[in-house]
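#struct-help
A.M.: can someone run this one for me? Single chain, 153 residues.
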Amino acid sequence: MYIKKPYSYIIAENISGGVQAPAIAIANFIFDRNISVIFSGYCHSACANYILPAAKLKIVMPNTKFGWHGCSAKQASTQAEIEEIERFLDYETLATMKQEEASFYQKVGVAQTICTCGMKESTKTPMFYYNPKDLYKFGIRDFYILQDIVTGK
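D.P.: on it. Structure tokens below:
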């Protein structure tokens, strides 16, 4: 990510994701300062979960993809998933992560289900995607695809 002072916009290009706590901290920085974000290439995982909803204006370059694959709000559905989570996180840490995430989504006015609604138990697809109309249903506002601005379509 590139930050232009005085923090009027950030360029997010080809962001594959990251760790939840720092991503939420960056997203809160963006939201609290009304920073717009120009998205290019792809914005997956923590970028889609937190940076996209936090941006004041979401300026999207043509062919940019936003991909989700879950978040801390996702409930483990199998014993194997529970064991995998417990290998890395204790209950208190996971509870803290869930609370921080819920507070973030409430603050930015976006439905937390954005990061889990597209998940399907029947598929092994690592990422899922939404169209702009669906993003609006979750509360993503001020989403502008640059191609639409240029062509008027």
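A.M.: thanks! The radius of gyration is 16 Å.
D.P.: also worth noting: Strands lie at 2-4, 9-15, 36-44, 58-60, 65-67, 143-145.
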